[in-house]
Amino acid sequence: MNEAVDPMRLYSLNEINYPKFRSQIIHLYLHAFATGEQAQYIDPQQAESRLDELVKRGMGLMAFVGDRLAGVVLGMPLQQDREFPVYEVPGTAVDTSLYIAELMVHADLRGQGIATALITEMLSRAAETHTDVVIRVWDENKPALSLYHKLGFHPVATITQTKKHVSGESFEMRKIYLHKHLLPFPPA
Predict the structure, then answer these.
(1) CA distance linking residue 98 with residue 112, whole number of Å
(2) How far apart are CA 148 and CA 94, in angstroms?
(3) What is the pTM of this model?
């Protein structure tokens, strides 16, 4: 007998509806980054501040499956990402680019197209106001790298960040910035 599957629904995330979903989004963020293969220590208060600031400065989308928050994507102007190596990537229009700062999908729901739907919709909305999109990913996150490649992103730069394992031990994480043009450059 086939089990009924709840359809995925996408909703805008903004300062108006964020307070209603804030605790669920924080929980999802901590679950996505502090558990599993990519587990790292994340201070809950710093996570709250980061998410609050991203919603205030940028744009976001939420994915629900049934009543469950399944995923979130948050973007902001690239010029606000202090770590982007702008001098290594002189062709990137920092002032007209969107930076996808966070993409999180609940571990139980990965591989079901949620990340693809969130990114695809974010790209569609970003095309109305931005010429380019940049996303950053851990170089060992092969599923994410594969998805971004399929969606037309190409590597442009790398950085190294010092993170902490949940055990408290420090480690180096190599991150790759990937870029995608949304619109052709305006004619001269």
Answers:
(1) 25
(2) 20
(3) 0.88
Residue 2 counted as domain residue: no
Number of domains in the chain: 1
The CATH code of the domain that includes 176 is 3.40.630.30
Q: Taking 50 as the threshold, does the pLDDT of residue 168 lie above it?
A: yes
Torsion of CA 175, 78, 54, 167, to 10 degrees: 10
- C-alpha 114/C-alpha 73 separation (Å) is 10
Contact 75, 98 (CB under 8 A): yes
Q: In this predicted model, what pLDDT tens digit does every residue of 117-163 receive, in sequence order? A: 999 999 999 998 999 999 999 898 899 999 999 999 999 999 887 77
Q: Which domain holds residue 85?
A: 8-181
Strand 59-65's sheet: what is its strand order? 8-13, 59-65, 68-77, 97-105, 132-138, 170-181, 154-164
What is the distance, to the nearest Å, from the Cα of residue 79 to the centroid of all Cα atoms in its chain?
16
